[in-house]
Design goal:
globular, 243 residues
Length: 243
């Protein structure tokens, strides 16, 4: 798919990119989801923090999505990518809302993470991935991100203070849907948040030059993304089954 930059195309591409990322995390845990024209769904419970379904079009059926996932066990969630579904009749409540974001494509070297205090590198080994996850989680690695992901078309980006220092910031950068997605961005020092966004955009331009960059954020994180040059595209919701 060639993304020309209309809001509709970018929203569709952002939803597909995010579904690809969710599918990769699930496959790394041995959980295989299925794609249709309207949604990605998993009949098995997905790993913590990851949805059981992601709508891919505004016309996706709420009833069909609810029927395609496991609502019998706790924790079932659906990412309503276009804030267009009413899942309340199926026993869901809105868990949170956010905004899709977009930044135009950048070529290699067009968005350097300049003048920062951190040194950036890609996670390359299982041990480094454990360290990255512990930094992202703020406590310890639980094995959410499996080493199998290191072979996917994505990058775990780590920011360290000085050579070989502790990981204090990071992000996941992944291609899919004709765009590059930035997710799981974190920084332990607010001063490093802007640098983390710049580093993620720079790596997107280096790895996949010419592709638009997308993601989703809410609240203060959305404000930080806007300061980093992103533009809000439209709303999304995540629903949690509570019945």
């Amino acid at each position: 798919m060639i993304i020309t930059g209309t809001t509709e195309e970018l929203l569709l591409a952002a939803a597909r990119n995010n579904a690809d990322w969710c599918d990769a995390v699930c496959r790394a845990h041995g959980v295989r989801g299925a794609f249709t024209a309207d949604a990605w769904t998993s009949v098995l419970r997905t790993p913590p923090l990851y949805p059981d379904a992601v709508s891919l079009t505004p016309g996706a059926s709420a009833a069909a999505l609810a029927d395609a996932v496991d609502t019998a066990s706790p924790g079932c969630s659906v990412k309503d990518s276009f804030a267009a579904l009413d899942l309340a009749p199926a026993g869901f409540e809105v868990l949170f809302e956010a905004q899709w974001i977009h930044r135009p494509a950048a070529g290699a070297g067009a968005a350097p993470a300049a003048d920062g205090r951190l040194e950036w590198s890609e996670v390359a080994t299982a041990g480094e991935l454990d360290v990255w996850e512990a930094a992202w989680d703020g406590e310890e690695s639980t094995g959410l991100f499996r080493p199998a992901l290191l072979g996917e078309d994505l990058v775990f980006l780590a920011g360290r203070v000085g050579g070989g220092g502790a990981v204090v910031a990071g992000a996941v950068v992944s291609s899919g849907g004709g765009v590059v997605g930035v997710s799981n961005l974190f920084a332990h020092d607010d001063a490093d948040t802007g640098e983390a966004w710049a580093a993620a955009v720079a790596r997107a331009g280096e790895r996949w030059p010419g592709l638009p960059v997308v993601g989703y954020e809410g609240g203060d994180d959305l404000e930080a993304a806007v300061r980093a040059g992103f533009t809000p595209l439209g709303p999304l919701r995540v629903w949690l089954h509570t019945a």
